[in-house]
Request: fold
Amino acid sequence: MEKIFKLKEHNTNVRTEIIAGLTTFFAMAYIIFLNPVILGENSPTGMKNTAVITATCIAAAIGTWLIGWLSNYPMAQAPGLGLNAVFAYTLCGAYGLSAGAALSAVFIAGLIFILLTVTGARTALVKAIPIDLKKAIGAGIGMFIALIGLVNAGIVVGESSAATTVGMGNFASPTVLLACVGLIITIVLVVAKVPAALFISMIATSVIGCVMQFVFKINVGVTAPTNWMPYLDFSMFGKCFTSFGDLLSAPLASLIATMITLVLVDMFDTIGTLIGAADKAGYLDENGDLPKIEKAMLADAIATSTGAVMGTSTVTTYVESTAGISAGGKTGLTSTVTGLCFLLALFLSPIVGLVPSAATAPILIVVGVMMCGSLKDIEWSDIEVAIPCFLTVACMPFFYSITDGLAFGFISYVIVKLAKGKVKEIHPLMYVIVGLFLLKYVISALNTMGIL
Reply:
Protein backbone atom coordinates (compact mmCIF):
# COMPACT_ATOMS: atom_id res chain seq x y z
CA MET A 1 0.00 0.00 0.00
CA GLU A 2 2.88 2.33 0.77
CA LYS A 3 4.35 1.71 -2.68
CA ILE A 4 1.03 2.24 -4.48
CA PHE A 5 -0.51 5.10 -2.48
CA LYS A 6 2.58 6.75 -0.90
CA LEU A 7 0.94 7.01 2.52
CA LYS A 8 4.00 8.37 4.39
CA GLU A 9 4.58 11.01 1.73
CA HIS A 10 0.99 12.22 2.25
CA ASN A 11 1.29 12.02 6.06
CA THR A 12 -1.48 9.45 6.51
CA ASN A 13 -1.94 5.79 7.47
CA VAL A 14 -4.11 2.79 6.62
CA ARG A 15 -6.50 3.28 9.55
CA THR A 16 -7.20 6.92 8.66
CA GLU A 17 -7.70 6.07 5.00
CA ILE A 18 -10.19 3.29 5.83
CA ILE A 19 -12.22 5.60 8.08
CA ALA A 20 -12.18 8.27 5.38
CA GLY A 21 -13.32 5.77 2.75
CA LEU A 22 -16.24 4.66 4.91
CA THR A 23 -17.15 8.30 5.57
CA THR A 24 -17.26 9.11 1.86
CA PHE A 25 -19.40 6.06 1.15
CA PHE A 26 -22.06 6.92 3.71
CA ALA A 27 -22.06 10.53 2.52
CA MET A 28 -23.03 9.46 -1.02
CA ALA A 29 -24.76 6.11 -0.44
CA TYR A 30 -28.10 7.82 -1.05
CA ILE A 31 -27.47 7.51 -4.81
CA ILE A 32 -28.02 3.73 -4.52
CA PHE A 33 -31.64 4.39 -3.58
CA LEU A 34 -32.13 7.62 -5.48
CA ASN A 35 -30.89 6.49 -8.90
CA PRO A 36 -33.78 3.97 -9.32
CA VAL A 37 -36.21 6.83 -8.64
CA ILE A 38 -34.77 8.82 -11.56
CA LEU A 39 -33.90 5.95 -13.91
CA GLY A 40 -36.20 3.15 -12.76
CA GLU A 41 -39.56 1.66 -13.61
CA ASN A 42 -41.60 4.81 -12.97
CA SER A 43 -39.35 7.06 -15.06
CA PRO A 44 -39.33 7.58 -18.86
CA THR A 45 -36.57 4.94 -19.15
CA GLY A 46 -38.73 2.06 -17.92
CA MET A 47 -35.65 0.21 -16.65
CA LYS A 48 -36.15 -2.23 -13.78
CA ASN A 49 -35.20 -0.83 -10.40
CA THR A 50 -33.10 -3.88 -9.59
CA ALA A 51 -31.13 -3.45 -12.81
CA VAL A 52 -30.48 0.21 -12.00
CA ILE A 53 -29.27 -0.64 -8.49
CA THR A 54 -26.92 -3.35 -9.78
CA ALA A 55 -25.50 -1.03 -12.45
CA THR A 56 -25.20 1.88 -10.00
CA CYS A 57 -23.20 -0.06 -7.42
CA ILE A 58 -20.82 -1.66 -9.93
CA ALA A 59 -20.29 1.55 -11.92
CA ALA A 60 -19.66 3.52 -8.71
CA ALA A 61 -17.14 0.94 -7.51
CA ILE A 62 -15.24 0.88 -10.81
CA GLY A 63 -15.33 4.67 -11.25
CA THR A 64 -14.14 5.29 -7.69
CA TRP A 65 -11.30 2.80 -8.04
CA LEU A 66 -10.27 4.35 -11.35
CA ILE A 67 -9.94 7.89 -10.02
CA GLY A 68 -8.21 6.68 -6.86
CA TRP A 69 -5.70 4.49 -8.67
CA LEU A 70 -4.99 6.78 -11.65
CA SER A 71 -4.68 10.09 -9.78
CA ASN A 72 -4.14 8.91 -6.16
CA TYR A 73 -6.74 11.44 -5.07
CA PRO A 74 -9.27 10.41 -2.38
CA MET A 75 -12.19 11.07 -4.72
CA ALA A 76 -15.26 8.95 -5.44
CA GLN A 77 -17.47 8.58 -8.50
CA ALA A 78 -21.00 7.38 -9.15
CA PRO A 79 -23.88 8.07 -11.57
CA GLY A 80 -24.35 11.82 -11.23
CA LEU A 81 -27.43 13.65 -10.04
CA GLY A 82 -28.49 15.95 -12.85
CA LEU A 83 -26.79 13.69 -15.36
CA ASN A 84 -29.27 10.91 -14.54
CA ALA A 85 -32.06 13.45 -14.98
CA VAL A 86 -30.67 14.30 -18.42
CA PHE A 87 -30.68 10.60 -19.28
CA ALA A 88 -34.25 9.98 -18.13
CA TYR A 89 -36.15 13.19 -18.84
CA THR A 90 -34.23 14.55 -21.82
CA LEU A 91 -32.86 11.57 -23.76
CA CYS A 92 -35.64 9.07 -23.02
CA GLY A 93 -38.41 11.55 -22.27
CA ALA A 94 -38.09 14.55 -24.56
CA TYR A 95 -36.18 12.81 -27.37
CA GLY A 96 -38.05 9.51 -27.13
CA LEU A 97 -34.96 7.29 -27.09
CA SER A 98 -35.20 3.81 -25.64
CA ALA A 99 -33.14 3.11 -22.52
CA GLY A 100 -30.75 0.99 -24.61
CA ALA A 101 -30.29 3.73 -27.21
CA ALA A 102 -29.62 6.29 -24.48
CA LEU A 103 -27.01 3.95 -22.98
CA SER A 104 -25.40 3.67 -26.42
CA ALA A 105 -25.21 7.46 -26.55
CA VAL A 106 -23.61 7.59 -23.10
CA PHE A 107 -21.07 4.94 -24.16
CA ILE A 108 -20.14 6.94 -27.27
CA ALA A 109 -19.95 10.14 -25.20
CA GLY A 110 -17.52 8.36 -22.87
CA LEU A 111 -15.30 7.50 -25.84
CA ILE A 112 -15.49 11.11 -27.02
CA PHE A 113 -14.50 12.27 -23.52
CA ILE A 114 -11.50 9.93 -23.57
CA LEU A 115 -10.39 11.36 -26.92
CA LEU A 116 -10.97 14.95 -25.82
CA THR A 117 -9.12 14.33 -22.55
CA VAL A 118 -5.98 12.74 -23.98
CA THR A 119 -5.74 15.46 -26.64
CA GLY A 120 -6.34 18.31 -24.20
CA ALA A 121 -9.38 19.48 -26.16
CA ARG A 122 -11.72 18.87 -23.23
CA THR A 123 -9.95 21.48 -21.15
CA ALA A 124 -10.01 23.90 -24.10
CA LEU A 125 -13.75 23.48 -24.53
CA VAL A 126 -14.39 24.15 -20.87
CA LYS A 127 -12.25 27.29 -20.97
CA ALA A 128 -14.25 28.55 -23.95
CA ILE A 129 -17.38 28.93 -21.81
CA PRO A 130 -17.57 32.16 -19.78
CA ILE A 131 -17.28 31.60 -16.05
CA ASP A 132 -20.70 33.15 -15.35
CA LEU A 133 -22.41 30.74 -17.74
CA LYS A 134 -20.64 27.83 -16.05
CA LYS A 135 -22.06 29.00 -12.72
CA ALA A 136 -25.52 29.35 -14.26
CA ILE A 137 -25.41 25.83 -15.72
CA GLY A 138 -24.80 24.28 -12.30
CA ALA A 139 -27.56 26.36 -10.74
CA GLY A 140 -29.99 25.58 -13.57
CA ILE A 141 -29.45 21.86 -13.15
CA GLY A 142 -29.99 22.36 -9.42
CA MET A 143 -33.33 24.06 -10.09
CA PHE A 144 -34.31 21.23 -12.41
CA ILE A 145 -33.40 18.58 -9.83
CA ALA A 146 -35.30 20.46 -7.12
CA LEU A 147 -38.38 20.61 -9.37
CA ILE A 148 -38.21 16.85 -9.91
CA GLY A 149 -38.01 16.41 -6.15
CA LEU A 150 -40.98 18.69 -5.52
CA VAL A 151 -43.02 16.82 -8.14
CA ASN A 152 -42.03 13.39 -6.78
CA ALA A 153 -43.00 14.57 -3.31
CA GLY A 154 -46.41 15.73 -4.55
CA ILE A 155 -45.71 19.23 -3.27
CA VAL A 156 -45.87 20.61 -6.82
CA VAL A 157 -48.53 19.28 -9.19
CA GLY A 158 -49.70 20.02 -12.70
CA GLU A 159 -52.83 22.16 -12.93
CA SER A 160 -55.63 21.68 -15.42
CA SER A 161 -56.78 25.25 -14.88
CA ALA A 162 -56.16 27.61 -17.79
CA ALA A 163 -55.03 30.27 -15.32
CA THR A 164 -52.09 28.31 -13.91
CA THR A 165 -49.65 25.72 -15.18
CA VAL A 166 -48.53 24.25 -11.85
CA GLY A 167 -49.89 24.44 -8.35
CA MET A 168 -49.43 23.27 -4.77
CA GLY A 169 -50.21 19.65 -3.97
CA ASN A 170 -52.70 18.23 -1.50
CA PHE A 171 -51.18 18.43 1.97
CA ALA A 172 -53.85 16.09 3.28
CA SER A 173 -52.13 13.33 1.32
CA PRO A 174 -50.06 11.01 3.56
CA THR A 175 -47.32 10.84 0.93
CA VAL A 176 -47.02 14.62 0.78
CA LEU A 177 -46.97 14.86 4.57
CA LEU A 178 -44.26 12.21 4.79
CA ALA A 179 -42.20 14.09 2.18
CA CYS A 180 -42.57 17.29 4.20
CA VAL A 181 -41.45 15.52 7.36
CA GLY A 182 -38.49 14.14 5.40
CA LEU A 183 -37.68 17.61 4.08
CA ILE A 184 -37.67 19.02 7.62
CA ILE A 185 -35.37 16.22 8.81
CA THR A 186 -33.05 16.76 5.86
CA ILE A 187 -32.89 20.52 6.38
CA VAL A 188 -32.15 20.16 10.10
CA LEU A 189 -29.38 17.61 9.55
CA VAL A 190 -27.78 19.57 6.69
CA VAL A 191 -27.89 22.87 8.58
CA ALA A 192 -26.42 21.13 11.64
CA LYS A 193 -23.65 19.79 9.36
CA VAL A 194 -24.21 16.22 10.45
CA PRO A 195 -21.91 13.84 8.52
CA ALA A 196 -23.80 11.78 5.90
CA ALA A 197 -26.86 14.01 6.51
CA LEU A 198 -28.60 13.10 3.25
CA PHE A 199 -28.22 9.36 3.81
CA ILE A 200 -29.37 9.58 7.44
CA SER A 201 -32.40 11.69 6.54
CA MET A 202 -33.42 9.18 3.85
CA ILE A 203 -33.17 6.28 6.30
CA ALA A 204 -35.06 8.17 9.03
CA THR A 205 -37.87 9.16 6.64
CA SER A 206 -38.08 5.59 5.35
CA VAL A 207 -38.43 4.26 8.90
CA ILE A 208 -41.27 6.72 9.56
CA GLY A 209 -42.87 5.64 6.29
CA CYS A 210 -42.65 1.97 7.24
CA VAL A 211 -44.31 2.69 10.59
CA MET A 212 -47.10 4.64 8.85
CA GLN A 213 -47.70 1.88 6.31
CA PHE A 214 -47.22 -1.32 8.29
CA VAL A 215 -48.31 -0.21 11.76
CA PHE A 216 -50.98 2.43 11.07
CA LYS A 217 -51.96 1.03 7.63
CA ILE A 218 -51.50 4.39 5.89
CA ASN A 219 -50.31 3.99 2.31
CA VAL A 220 -47.21 6.08 1.63
CA GLY A 221 -45.72 4.01 -1.19
CA VAL A 222 -43.60 1.58 0.82
CA THR A 223 -43.26 -1.89 -0.70
CA ALA A 224 -42.44 -4.84 1.53
CA PRO A 225 -39.82 -7.19 0.02
CA THR A 226 -41.18 -10.55 -1.11
CA ASN A 227 -37.73 -12.11 -0.97
CA TRP A 228 -34.98 -11.06 1.40
CA MET A 229 -32.28 -12.76 -0.65
CA PRO A 230 -30.02 -10.32 -2.56
CA TYR A 231 -30.94 -10.17 -6.22
CA LEU A 232 -28.45 -9.05 -8.85
CA ASP A 233 -30.08 -7.92 -12.08
CA PHE A 234 -27.79 -7.73 -15.11
CA SER A 235 -30.61 -7.31 -17.63
CA MET A 236 -29.18 -3.96 -18.84
CA PHE A 237 -25.59 -5.18 -18.98
CA GLY A 238 -24.18 -4.69 -22.49
CA LYS A 239 -27.47 -3.21 -23.70
CA CYS A 240 -25.53 -0.26 -25.08
CA PHE A 241 -23.87 -2.55 -27.64
CA THR A 242 -27.08 -4.15 -28.87
CA SER A 243 -28.94 -0.84 -29.13
CA PHE A 244 -26.67 1.10 -31.48
CA GLY A 245 -29.22 0.49 -34.24
CA ASP A 246 -31.98 2.09 -32.15
CA LEU A 247 -29.79 5.13 -31.56
CA LEU A 248 -28.89 5.53 -35.23
CA SER A 249 -32.53 5.16 -36.27
CA ALA A 250 -33.56 8.10 -34.07
CA PRO A 251 -34.46 11.40 -35.80
CA LEU A 252 -31.38 13.38 -36.78
CA ALA A 253 -32.39 16.32 -34.59
CA SER A 254 -32.69 14.09 -31.55
CA LEU A 255 -29.39 12.41 -32.33
CA ILE A 256 -27.53 15.72 -32.60
CA ALA A 257 -29.22 17.10 -29.50
CA THR A 258 -28.41 13.93 -27.57
CA MET A 259 -24.68 14.13 -28.17
CA ILE A 260 -24.55 17.89 -27.58
CA THR A 261 -26.38 17.40 -24.29
CA LEU A 262 -24.17 14.59 -23.03
CA VAL A 263 -20.91 16.22 -24.03
CA LEU A 264 -21.69 19.67 -22.63
CA VAL A 265 -23.51 18.72 -19.44
CA ASP A 266 -21.07 16.02 -18.34
CA MET A 267 -18.10 18.21 -19.22
CA PHE A 268 -19.22 21.05 -16.98
CA ASP A 269 -20.52 18.76 -14.24
CA THR A 270 -17.24 16.85 -14.01
CA ILE A 271 -15.01 19.90 -14.05
CA GLY A 272 -17.25 21.70 -11.57
CA THR A 273 -17.42 18.89 -9.01
CA LEU A 274 -13.77 17.92 -9.43
CA ILE A 275 -12.50 21.47 -8.95
CA GLY A 276 -15.03 22.09 -6.17
CA ALA A 277 -13.94 19.02 -4.21
CA ALA A 278 -10.26 19.75 -4.84
CA ASP A 279 -10.70 23.35 -3.70
CA LYS A 280 -12.30 22.27 -0.43
CA ALA A 281 -9.52 19.72 0.05
CA GLY A 282 -6.82 22.31 -0.59
CA TYR A 283 -5.39 20.48 -3.63
CA LEU A 284 -5.39 23.46 -6.01
CA ASP A 285 -2.06 25.12 -6.72
CA GLU A 286 -1.30 28.84 -6.52
CA ASN A 287 -2.84 29.39 -9.96
CA GLY A 288 -6.08 27.66 -9.02
CA ASP A 289 -5.25 24.63 -11.14
CA LEU A 290 -5.51 21.01 -10.06
CA PRO A 291 -2.36 18.93 -10.57
CA LYS A 292 -3.01 15.60 -12.32
CA ILE A 293 -6.42 16.87 -13.47
CA GLU A 294 -5.93 15.06 -16.78
CA LYS A 295 -5.66 11.72 -14.98
CA ALA A 296 -8.74 12.48 -12.90
CA MET A 297 -10.73 13.45 -16.01
CA LEU A 298 -9.49 10.35 -17.84
CA ALA A 299 -10.81 8.23 -14.97
CA ASP A 300 -14.14 10.03 -15.30
CA ALA A 301 -14.25 9.43 -19.06
CA ILE A 302 -13.47 5.72 -18.76
CA ALA A 303 -16.02 5.38 -15.94
CA THR A 304 -18.69 6.98 -18.14
CA SER A 305 -18.33 4.31 -20.84
CA THR A 306 -17.99 1.57 -18.25
CA GLY A 307 -21.17 2.74 -16.52
CA ALA A 308 -23.03 2.67 -19.83
CA VAL A 309 -21.94 -0.94 -20.33
CA MET A 310 -23.24 -1.78 -16.85
CA GLY A 311 -26.55 -0.05 -17.62
CA THR A 312 -26.55 3.34 -15.94
CA SER A 313 -26.26 7.03 -16.80
CA THR A 314 -23.09 9.11 -16.87
CA VAL A 315 -20.66 8.53 -13.99
CA THR A 316 -18.99 11.58 -12.50
CA THR A 317 -16.96 12.75 -9.50
CA TYR A 318 -18.98 13.49 -6.35
CA VAL A 319 -18.47 16.59 -4.25
CA GLU A 320 -19.36 14.36 -1.26
CA SER A 321 -15.78 13.16 -1.59
CA THR A 322 -14.96 16.10 0.67
CA ALA A 323 -16.60 14.21 3.57
CA GLY A 324 -13.86 11.59 3.47
CA ILE A 325 -11.22 14.24 2.88
CA SER A 326 -12.44 16.04 6.00
CA ALA A 327 -12.08 12.74 7.87
CA GLY A 328 -8.40 12.63 6.94
CA GLY A 329 -8.39 10.86 3.56
CA LYS A 330 -5.46 11.93 1.41
CA THR A 331 -4.76 9.14 -1.09
CA GLY A 332 -6.36 6.67 -3.45
CA LEU A 333 -6.63 4.15 -0.61
CA THR A 334 -9.65 6.15 0.57
CA SER A 335 -11.20 5.62 -2.86
CA THR A 336 -10.34 1.91 -2.75
CA VAL A 337 -12.32 1.49 0.48
CA THR A 338 -15.26 3.53 -0.83
CA GLY A 339 -15.38 1.46 -4.02
CA LEU A 340 -15.36 -1.77 -2.02
CA CYS A 341 -18.32 -0.49 0.03
CA PHE A 342 -20.29 0.16 -3.18
CA LEU A 343 -19.56 -3.39 -4.30
CA LEU A 344 -20.83 -4.79 -1.00
CA ALA A 345 -23.91 -2.56 -1.32
CA LEU A 346 -25.08 -4.80 -4.16
CA PHE A 347 -26.68 -6.92 -1.49
CA LEU A 348 -29.01 -4.08 -0.41
CA SER A 349 -31.41 -4.69 -3.30
CA PRO A 350 -34.12 -6.43 -1.19
CA ILE A 351 -34.70 -3.33 0.96
CA VAL A 352 -35.02 -0.78 -1.84
CA GLY A 353 -38.80 -1.05 -1.79
CA LEU A 354 -38.74 0.10 1.84
CA VAL A 355 -37.46 3.51 0.67
CA PRO A 356 -40.48 5.43 -0.74
CA SER A 357 -40.20 8.35 -3.14
CA ALA A 358 -41.24 10.60 -0.25
CA ALA A 359 -37.90 9.73 1.39
CA THR A 360 -35.76 10.46 -1.66
CA ALA A 361 -37.60 13.58 -2.86
CA PRO A 362 -36.28 15.78 0.00
CA ILE A 363 -32.72 14.87 -0.99
CA LEU A 364 -33.34 16.09 -4.54
CA ILE A 365 -34.77 19.35 -3.22
CA VAL A 366 -31.86 20.03 -0.85
CA VAL A 367 -29.24 19.01 -3.43
CA GLY A 368 -30.92 21.50 -5.76
CA VAL A 369 -30.51 24.18 -3.10
CA MET A 370 -26.82 23.33 -2.75
CA MET A 371 -26.25 23.52 -6.50
CA CYS A 372 -27.82 26.97 -6.62
CA GLY A 373 -25.05 28.31 -4.40
CA SER A 374 -23.11 29.30 -7.51
CA LEU A 375 -25.71 32.00 -8.25
CA LYS A 376 -24.03 34.29 -5.73
CA ASP A 377 -20.91 34.47 -7.90
CA ILE A 378 -22.77 35.77 -10.98
CA GLU A 379 -22.57 39.51 -11.70
CA TRP A 380 -26.35 40.12 -11.86
CA SER A 381 -25.94 43.90 -12.01
CA ASP A 382 -24.36 43.53 -15.47
CA ILE A 383 -27.24 43.03 -17.93
CA GLU A 384 -24.87 41.41 -20.45
CA VAL A 385 -24.21 38.70 -17.90
CA ALA A 386 -27.67 38.58 -16.34
CA ILE A 387 -29.66 37.84 -19.53
CA PRO A 388 -27.88 34.64 -20.65
CA CYS A 389 -27.44 33.43 -17.08
CA PHE A 390 -31.11 33.97 -16.21
CA LEU A 391 -32.27 32.20 -19.36
CA THR A 392 -29.97 29.27 -18.60
CA VAL A 393 -31.25 28.92 -15.04
CA ALA A 394 -34.92 29.56 -15.79
CA CYS A 395 -35.34 27.56 -18.98
CA MET A 396 -34.04 24.28 -17.57
CA PRO A 397 -36.91 23.79 -15.08
CA PHE A 398 -39.49 25.70 -17.15
CA PHE A 399 -38.82 23.64 -20.28
CA TYR A 400 -38.12 20.51 -18.23
CA SER A 401 -35.00 20.22 -20.37
CA ILE A 402 -31.37 20.82 -19.46
CA THR A 403 -30.41 20.91 -23.14
CA ASP A 404 -32.82 23.69 -24.03
CA GLY A 405 -31.67 25.67 -21.01
CA LEU A 406 -28.10 25.40 -22.26
CA ALA A 407 -29.15 26.35 -25.77
CA PHE A 408 -31.09 29.47 -24.74
CA GLY A 409 -28.28 30.58 -22.45
CA PHE A 410 -25.51 30.10 -24.99
CA ILE A 411 -27.41 31.59 -27.92
CA SER A 412 -28.48 34.64 -25.92
CA TYR A 413 -24.87 35.13 -24.75
CA VAL A 414 -23.62 35.35 -28.34
CA ILE A 415 -26.50 37.66 -29.31
CA VAL A 416 -25.79 40.01 -26.39
CA LYS A 417 -22.08 40.21 -27.18
CA LEU A 418 -22.71 40.81 -30.87
CA ALA A 419 -25.27 43.51 -30.04
CA LYS A 420 -22.69 45.26 -27.87
CA GLY A 421 -20.02 44.95 -30.55
CA LYS A 422 -17.82 42.82 -28.30
CA VAL A 423 -17.02 40.20 -30.92
CA LYS A 424 -13.51 39.63 -29.57
CA GLU A 425 -14.93 38.49 -26.23
CA ILE A 426 -16.65 35.52 -27.88
CA HIS A 427 -14.42 32.45 -27.95
CA PRO A 428 -14.42 30.83 -31.42
CA LEU A 429 -15.59 27.55 -29.92
CA MET A 430 -18.72 29.31 -28.65
CA TYR A 431 -19.75 29.89 -32.26
CA VAL A 432 -19.35 26.15 -32.88
CA ILE A 433 -21.47 25.24 -29.86
CA VAL A 434 -24.18 27.77 -30.71
CA GLY A 435 -24.12 26.63 -34.33
CA LEU A 436 -24.77 23.05 -33.22
CA PHE A 437 -27.69 24.16 -31.06
CA LEU A 438 -29.18 26.18 -33.91
CA LEU A 439 -28.72 23.21 -36.25
CA LYS A 440 -30.62 21.08 -33.76
CA TYR A 441 -33.60 23.46 -33.76
CA VAL A 442 -33.56 23.86 -37.55
CA ILE A 443 -33.57 20.09 -38.09
CA SER A 444 -36.32 19.68 -35.48
CA ALA A 445 -38.45 22.31 -37.25
CA LEU A 446 -37.90 20.68 -40.63
CA ASN A 447 -38.90 17.32 -39.17
CA THR A 448 -42.06 18.85 -37.74
CA MET A 449 -42.95 20.33 -41.14
CA GLY A 450 -42.35 16.96 -42.78
CA ILE A 451 -39.49 18.23 -44.93
CA LEU A 452 -36.97 15.77 -43.44
